[in-house]
Structures are given as structure tokens and as C-alpha cells.
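Case study 2.
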Amino acid sequence: MKIEQIYTGCLAQGAYYIESDGEVAIIDPLRETQQYVDKASNENAKVKYIFETHFHADFVSGHVDLAKKTGAKIIFGPGAETNYEIHSAKDNEEFKLGNIIIKVLHTPGHTLESSTFLLIDENGKEHAIFSGDTLFLGDVGRPDLAIKSDLTKEDLAGMLYDSLRNKIIPLPDDVIVYPAHGAGSACGKNLSKETVGVLGKQKNTNYALKSDMTKEEFVKEVLDGIAPPPQYFAKNAMMNKSGYDAFDTVLKKGNNPLSPEEFETLANLEDALVLDVRHEKEFIKGHIPNSIFIGIHGGFAPWVGALITDLKQPILLVTPEGREKETVTRLSRVGYDNTLGYLKDGMASWISAGKDIETIDSISSDEFSNHFNNETINVLDVRKDGEYKSEYLEGNNIQHFALDYINENMHNIDKNNTYYVHCAGGYRSVIAVSILKARGFNHLIDVAGGFAAIKQSDLPTTNFVCPSTLKE
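Prediction:
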């Protein structure tokens, strides 16, 4: 028996390759599936099953493509309905894979069809669970992502409580836990950086598995502080339910080199978004007018999903040399399949062709401190709410909204004013400036290094105080 976790850091997502006696099961595969086909072929094995723990919201799974390539059967939990052929398993149904058994434990709560897959080894021992978004290390899945359900998030949280106590907690302490996500995923609140654990430790340390916790306490705890899901979550879940274009087709279309003239013509004809994925320092120095920056070196795919609201939006790419295919691939993982091509030879070719470029004003924290102390300036903080509440600049002209919600909040700032924009380290502020510039905000100054650099200056910072704790 062989179990391999194939972890993708950008999505904080774990797919799994399981092999026994020449037969293979893949759990929650990524969009690009050839890697699994090649791995099985190299092991002289055949992919027999594709198990999906649920309809994923944070990425587009590769199950449909993989089934077409291998003839493997797609297995979902009870109640799953799709526009393509699947086997909707019964609770406790068992699937033989070589010398082992994979048993379906229906664990609704994150979504209605959510299931945990229990691996029973060659000796009949309960060896591991592939828990999807039912159980993470340190947390559980958010219960507010069900597609077109009449159930409330409180209803689903109650189901999750029952699933954990009836299906997960009774399992032996030495059962290995293989979750679908780790730290950085928006599918939970407080996920561990570890990606593999042991159930006994989770019983002792995971708040959601406390033996003395009532259902009412669990529901309150699991819903407390949960942020609204990113806008692309429901759209990705629907793609996973309905099906999608073949990845190879998407890649062939998007991995298309374009001269500056071809690039410019397509941008105008298709009303395409120009997405620049280079480093923010390069973008600051020179970029195509009205292009949007989301650097591929950061949390690229989730930020694309949060900020580009139309999955069908035509996209043209400016990439670092050699990362064109990777960029198209990572876009497709979150459902952005309409990439038209990339600028051949990058910005150097654009500049050589005599095309217009724009720059961003960016200043150091020392320069920012000088302005802040000697002038009345407007500051825009685009960190997440939790970061802002932890510590922020003191001042009367400071506005805050998280970059995640910039499209909903830009009406709250004035195009006639100059804003000094900062995040925590400098990546998100450049994203924010690029989006605002493309919408006609022309008086923006980036603070390089973000709040981390600001804290090293002489500027006053303070912690957020909840109004309910203030004395009258």
C-alpha cells in the first residue's frame, strides 16, 4: 500500500494518490490531471477510482478530466447530483482497491454531500481518514457553502457537530488524518500549518472535538468570526457540480505567445483584462496602462478569485519569462479558463515597440513618516480586518477596508484626494493601487514594505479596542 499527499501551497490544498496491488485511487485531484496518469503509469498501475470529498468551492477539481482520461469511476458521497456520470455512494459503502478497502462515511455539515473516506488496510485495520473539509488539523470546515440549499448555516453547523461525534470521534486515536486543506485556506478559520496529523491529537487539541461541548456551543463557536466567502467560491462549486472545459483545451488556448501588436489588438477587440503577474517592484517601475497586478509569487489564485468577479472574463497575461504555462494553469485551478495569450518577451518587447507605459509612485516608510508628521494626508489600509484590529496607525484621516472587498468599497474614497496605500508587506497594496488606477483613481502613492516597515518608523500605532469594552 502506498499513500502520497500531493500538496499545492498556493491553494493550501492536499490531493491524495493511493495505490494497492496495481490499483490506484485519487482523492480530490487538481485541475491538471496528467500528473496522476503519469504516476500510475510509472508504477504499472491503473487508476480505478476518483473520490471527491465534496463539491469543492475554493478550486476546480480535476475529477471530470481524469475520469475521461482513465475510465475511472467518480465517487461522491450520498445525495450528490451532477451533470456528468458519477456513483453517488451510500453511507458505509465500501470500495475494494487492490488489497485495501476505502469506506465512505457520510459526514454532512460543510456541505450536504460531504464525506470522509476511511482507509482499511490489508490487515483489516482502520488506518487513515481522508477528511476533506469535514475535519482539518486544528479546525473544521465552514458550514456556509452549500449550493442552493434551503438550510441555514446554523442547520449545517448542527449537522457537522453530529457528523464529527457519530462518525469521526469513535474512530481509533492512531488513525491518520489527511485533510483537504492546511493553513492559508479560506475553508476554515484557524487551520494548522501541518498537513498530516493523528486523530488522537485532534481529539485533545481541536476545539471542535471537545467531549464536553454541546451542539449549541459548537454552532456558536464554529460560526463566530467567519468571514463572508470569496465571490468565486459558489462559482467554483457549480463548475465542480456541472462540469467544465478540458484542461488541455484551456491550456492550449491560453499558452499563446503574442506580439505587442497582437496583444494590443486582442485587448481592444475582446475587452480583455490585462493581468500582470510579475513582482510588484517590476510592476511599479513600468506596466501596461490599466493593467491589474496580482503577483504569481504571492497567494495568486485565491486573490484572482477574490478580485476578478467574472470567471468568463477574457484575460491577457504579462508574466515573468518561463512562467507563462504555470500562470494559465493556476488561473484554471480557480475557474478562470478564458486566457487568450501572453505578451511574448514580456515588457521588454512592449517598450521596444514604443508602446505607452505607466508607473506607480512608491515611497519608503521613512518618506511616508515625514509626510505623515508634517502634512494632513489620507491613508488607506487594505489589510484584513483581523490584521487591522491587531494594530494600526493612529490618525484622523485613515480609512480601512480589506483588499478582498475593494470592489464593494471603492465608492467610499474620493478620486480627487491623494491616498497613501499600505498593506502588511507591500504585495497587496500594489494590487489595490493597480485596481484603483484602472478605475480612474489617479492620486495614489504606495508605501513600500507596508505596515511591517511602518512599525519600524517613529509613527504612532495602537491596538483596536472594541466599543463594548470602553468605560463611559
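Residues 466-472 have pLDDT under 50 and may be disordered.
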